[in-house]
Amino acid sequence: MAEWTERAELLFTTEGLEKLKNSNILVVGMGGVGSFAAEFIARAGVGKMTIVDGDVVDITNINRQLPALHSTVGMSKVDVVGDRLQDINPELKLTRIKEFLSPERAYELVTTEFDYVVDCIDSITPKLNLIKSARDKKIKVVSSMGAGGKLDASKVKVSDISKTNNCHLATAVRKRLRKMHVQKGVKAVYSTEIQKEGSLRMTDGQNFKKSFYGTCSYMPGLFGLYCAETVIRYLLKSNVEGRMSNDD
After folding, report:
1. Do strands 211-213 and 200-202 pair parallel, antiparallel, or not at all (unpaired)?
2. Which residues, other chains included, contact 62 with Cβ-Cβ below 8 Å and sequence gap of 6+?
3. Which of 29, 71, 216, 233 has its CA 20 to 30 A from that of 9?
4. CATH number for the domain that contains residue 67
5. Could you give the number of structural domains in the chain?
6. Which structural domain, as residue segments, surrounds residue 219?
7. 0.90 exceeded by pTM
8. What is the pLDDT of residues 16-48, one digit of tens each?
9. Residue 227's closest CA among 172, 132, 129, 147?
10. Contact call for residues 164 and 143 (beta carbons, < 8 A)
11. Is residue 131 part of a domain?
């Protein structure tokens, strides 16, 4: 194994690290949640990854997104994150897809070559189609719910989508998934904290996004961490006690 994975190998074991190296992960959305999730997954030693986002860094992203710096404003998020991931692990087999995910494309993107799908999309229709595609193709999926409008890190949880509460996005996703004949089997990262309604802002509806909440620096990164933990522990088949059960 490479020298940089020495500490991980002590925890994961050589066999576990080999499992990660042979895994292939799809991460959709390189914003506040997805950029951190992708980095944590890469630093764990996963050998193959596809990252997807059609957006560029905006100055308003700086308060919470990993690729966002004054020096990167206007640059493709996929490029900034991708270069960073390759610098973390030069042997990472990385595919970069620069596009906003349309609802139709969300179905096409998921293939059986992936071991896990990480959904960090904040537009609900493409999000639903990505989840449905993963479920139809029997691929594990973890989906980030609403990190905006919240401040309490202790309220963040991972559970089946059917068990989420106090999250407007999760409620909308859960209801619409039922109409798509998906009632459970989707891991969701969410917070039980009630959103601060005064922080809601409406948009012009571009890219399937009608509104957004104000956000703090740490909450999207924490959601990304939980997404990465869900993926990594599944791949390792960890027996360590924690939030996930052994059959997740």
Report:
1. antiparallel
2. 68, 69, 70
3. 29
4. 3.40.50.720
5. 1
6. 11-236
7. yes
8. 999 999 999 999 999 999 999 999 999 999 999
9. 147
10. no
11. yes
